[in-house]
Amino acid sequence: TAGATGFVEQAAEALGGVDILVANAGGPPPGTFATTDLGAYLPALELNLMSTVAMCRAAVPAMVDQGWGRVVAITSITVRQPAASLILSNTARAGVTGFLKTLATEVAPHGVTVNSVQPGLHATDRLSRLHGGDLSTAGATVPVGHVGDPDDFGAAVAFLCSEPAGFITGSALAIDGGAFPGLQ
Fold first, then answer.
1. How far apart are CA 161 and CA 19, in angstroms?
2. Strand, helix or coil at 135?
């Protein structure tokens, strides 16, 4: 968490403040309940939950003071539909989602929006590692027929950070090519 807080403090010093915070952390190692040691949970929570909490604690008070700010955290579609082989990620990112929803309602009256985006399968190094380098098989499971383009994902995040997105807060946006089977 010290690194996350330091990152925000350095950015604020270099830029004169932080108006927009996009929190993103890599995923913890894959595993199931049976294969994941109890000792692996705390590092996963530090990586995915506590780093976001720490960055928000460092950045959001100034946003509240100035009456404007944007927080977007990148979590995962597994918050809605946990993946059997990603128990650490499922657990930690669900915690991030609960934290963000709570924070959103607290800071909304001050012009600060807080949202999360939940990527499904996108062409990333992590997905390539999880699928043995063959993204075509991963894309076959997505209703649009292919994995997502990271640039398109970035454009959705950029919109949530924009002025026109000022009435969107406390939302968790699935960006998954229609893969999530629920009603949202």
1. 9
2. helix
Q: Which of 159, 59, 34, 171 is nearest to 115 (CA)?
A: 171
The H-or-E segment that residue 151 falls in is: helix 150-160
Whether the per-residue pLDDT at 146 is higher than 80: the answer is: yes
Q: Are 117 and 157 in contact (CB under 8 A)?
A: yes
CB 79 within 8 A of CB 35: no
Asked if pLDDT for residue 31 goes beyond 90, the answer is: yes
8 Å CB contact between 24 and 73: yes
DSSP letter (8 states) at residue 169: -
Instruction: Note whether 27 and 126 are within 8 A (CB).
Output: yes
CA–CA gap between residue 40 and residue 73 (Å, rounded):
22
Residue 28's pLDDT band, with cuts at 50, 70 and 90, is: very high
- Which CA distances in Å does 134 have to 53, 80, 104, 143? 34, 25, 38, 18
pLDDT tens sequence across 75-93: 999 999 999 999 999 999 9
Q: Which two tokens stand for residue 8?
A: 């925000």
Residue 184's pLDDT band (cuts 50, 70, 90) = low
Rounded-to-integer distance, Cα 63 and Cα 184, Å: 30
Residue 141 and residue 147: Cα distance in Å, rounded?
Answer: 9
